[in-house]
Queue: 3 jobs
Job 1
Amino acid sequence: MNDTPTLLAKHTAAPDRPADARPAAARRRALPWGGMAAWLVLAALLALTLAPFWMMLKTALTPAAELFSQSTRLWPEAPTLDNLRRVLGGMDAAQAIAAGGSGARIDVSRAVLNSLVFTAVVVVLQTACAAMAAYAFARLRFPGRQVLFGMFIASMMVPGVVTFIPNFILIKDLGWLNTLPGLVAPFALMQGFSVFFLRQFFLSIPRDLEEAARLEGAGFGCIFLRIVLPLSTTPLATIAVLTGIGMWNEFFWPSLVARDETWQVLPVALQAFKSQTPQGQPDWSGLMAAASLAVLPTLVLLLVLGRRVVESVQFSGGK
């Protein structure tokens, strides 16, 4: 049979075209209904998440005397920084009352400094201890290793309120109330999540690097400090960021052991500011101005390092 017509037809036919021959711009505009619904849901969830921050900022910039008269507005008519000045001590009690405040006062600068010191000490100690424990669980072989690691994992399921009373009794017996050691002690060592997270990453480091260093005479301490830690900057930074955010917002434990202004952290100071009501009601505009200051550090951390934290959690969780 002669196949020449068939071959000619194949060679003269138009080249294959994609299934969707529309221009690229038209394809981008034609978003599927499922995609549109997903974006609408995400937008609604984002609005619900940001609404409290918007109300906080709006209240902080609204003059205290006009707070209730402008409660239905999305933005104050005449934004002002007087509330921030009052919180930072830029006005005395008489001026604050004249501006519509309650006259309540707190030492915000001292509270911010205490929070920074408390957070920094806990982050350094907890990250260092968790890294050493995680490396031991990942590389060392010793009796009871699996049982001990299982206990660390089980500690993640124990509510923190269970340990507050025995910890408070211990701190009181040691005479550490209203001191930095009393604030730091329950958080200074390792946490179950930090150990688990770092162990998962250490398991992914090639053993060949450590074996080569061991052949050169390096011990476990040298390998850990000079090889493992330099390769683990991203997970270590993730643990430091997560721990820092948690400690910056910690309220319950500092309110138990450090109610004195000497070591009063910012969340406790905000509660004290709210409870001071010389004029009969809390100074909501001043309180929201102080809360805006408290949110600022964690917001900056999440904006700068949020993507790295998510990627690191996904990587370690998949191992």
Note: The radius of gyration is 29 Å.
Job 2
Amino acid sequence: MPLLLPLAIGVALLVDRLGEPPAWMHPVVGMGRYLGWFRLSRLPAPVAFIGGALAWLLGAALVAFLSLWLAGWVLIALAPATSAPGLLGAALLLGLLLKPLLAWRMLADEAMAVEAALAQSLDAGRQRLSRLVSRDTSALSETEVREAAIETLAENLNDSVIAPLFWFALFGLPGAAIYRFANTADAMWGYRDEREWSGKWAARADDVLSWLPARLTALLLWPPSLRALLREARRTPSPNSGWPMAAMALRLGRRLAKPGVYTLHADGQAVQPGDLAAARGMARQAVVAGALLMAAFAWALRA
């Protein structure tokens, strides 16, 4: 069934244009609720680390089991290897199951909503940005708000689109589901505060699973210089997020910075109105190229 997963990727991206499913049936929301049950940060560091690791492993096992069961049910019920209608039906169902594990339209819409809010006022832009980032936005300038929105768009291009497609191409629905669980756990637990020890396993797991997709995402953004990309990508504390952000900064020719933490492409011009729209266009091109590449990868593995 070499065509099953490539067709499912196409279905998922087409359905993504319709938006997100309701929260009550969204698997990533369910992952977040599971992770929210655990309050391990008040425990001693070794106990918190072990508890966080066990909670992560249990959650990953549950996600793997459910996604494998659903994918298996589709294959058994529709027998895609036996007929064209079965193949198309299985691709449709797998695509519908894959869709909630990626989110391109929502990401692009949220980034552009920051620009729309800035058109109203700086405070509105700051408040809208606070929905996307964990940093304090209350004192950011208009330029810094746009920078943060572009950085978030680039970073989440990997987390929300390219990486789930990469792991889906490799391991099918369980691959994409486990990646999204790992990324969600890192987003909720992976901070250097009272959650550090309980979230350390989650942070490292996300680093490992995002390592190759983040670099692939950077290349899909087509930066003008690989040498500059290698230099700039290392400036962020994260081993992965710097790659797509640096690629975006270089492609736009703009300086992107998180005050007191990093500056990417310091020789670039300051971000201007209109750069968010340009960044969205570049990210959209990367989504199309990435989807085609992952579809070809999935087909080649199974041909």
Note: The beta strands are 256-258, 262-264.
Job 3
Amino acid sequence: MNKTKLGYLLAVILLTGIILAACGNDDDADSSEDGDGEGLDTNIVTIATGGASGPYNIIATTLAEKYSSEYGVNSRTQTTGASVENVNLIEQDKVEMAFTMSDVVSQAINGEVSFEEPAEKLNQIAAMYPNYVQIVTTANSGIETFEDLKGKRIAVGDQNSGVEVNARTLLNGHGITYDDIEVDYLGYAEAADGLRAGQLDAAFLTSGLPNASLLELSETLDIRLVTIDPADVEEIAQDESYFVAMEIPAGTYGNDEPIPTAAIMNALVVHADMSEDDVYELTKTFFDSLDSLVNSHQAAADISLEAAQEGLVAPIHPGAERYYNEQ
């Protein structure tokens, strides 16, 4: 073979290698960008949650990991003061999704209590699992009924959190105002520490079951869970329809008997300006990932496709509605 033919052959081989490599790189790029899914219009899906130790953050972290791997987007959680702050973050275009309590969403839509104007950018994907009002005190505090909270030093959650909003509502429903108690605005972990140190008489830790901070506290301190009479819950629910009477099951925190209390459904909400296709995909992945969400926190076991549209308190996003219509 002469030098001209040899040079031509080598050039063809080299060019073929370059083309194959380029094709391989394109495939890798597509895989990196889109994961196993079809990709999204947005590049970022930030989910506002709550305290780092709460079910919101634990469940949402698993969900964000699913979104990142499925669609190749930058999806992460943002720890916050929870529900009220989360709604405001959506209204301020700072996050795409959020976990919130339904009472706060209802107030936001109506522009009342913690919201001066009705929320305009808030859509809902699903009703999720119930948040149980867990009022914890020590066994020797002398607090046995809800009315016994009067005059006590009580942690009511982070200021303007969903915990604080429903604590204030329930207190008012029992004829107790903040003027009648000594209020501390503390999140889950800080409230548990305050009870352990004897700096608090009681605390509201409203969340899914079990609450990690309360579970840890129950292992080191002799605690008591304060009951809320179902009849009182039903009376309060005449004005605040998002409250329902439920029970904390026996054995949740070493309690021998179920504890009657109030509960509020959690809501998965989304920015209204997200595209229909994006929210369709995010909704689909949310329900496809339920097994993983339950593995991250057992509160997610109460999420179901069948009940997801029951008790919606904000307009449903068209993308989520399309998903439900296809089921």
Note: The chain has eleven helices and eleven strands.
